[in-house]
Hints:
Blueprint: H1 2-15, E1 22-30, E2 38-47, E3 53-59, E4 65-74, E5 77-83, E6 86-88, E7 93-96, E8 101-106, E9 117-124, E10 130-137, E11 147-148
Parallel strand pairs: 1-10
Antiparallel strand pairs: 1-2, 1-11, 2-7, 2-8, 3-6, 3-9, 4-5, 4-8, 9-10
Amino acid sequence: MYKIVAIKLLFCLIAMPGLADILLDHGFVRATPPGQKMTAAYMCLTNSGAEDVVIEGVSIKIAARTEIHESYVRDGMMAMRQLPLITVPAGGRVELVPGGMHMMLFGVTNPLNEGEEVNIVLQYKNAASQQFYLPVQRQRMTSNHNTYH
């Protein structure tokens, strides 16, 4: 009996995805005024691993839906498009910044006030999900950056 349980446990551990080698820094969620149901999250993602890391989903409890977006210029006008995933290259870095790639939060349940924290979960293609906490800020990050794990 114990032998069967031990074998099943070992199989589960072998089948579990590993952790991604992602460091998130310079991250924040933009504060919202009362009544606004949409905002954005920005961050820098650094991959210290030897393999590319693919982010194929994001979940944030305070939003009904979170999407990865990219801003671009089309015919002299700013536009946005949804991206299916983000690839953080091995040994590389991807920046999610205002006016570039970012995460859109739709259906925000309550106003987000400066000084609060938001829990964000990155869902990887070939690794276990990873949880981070981002501060809520009214403006862009200054030179006084923090690192969040």
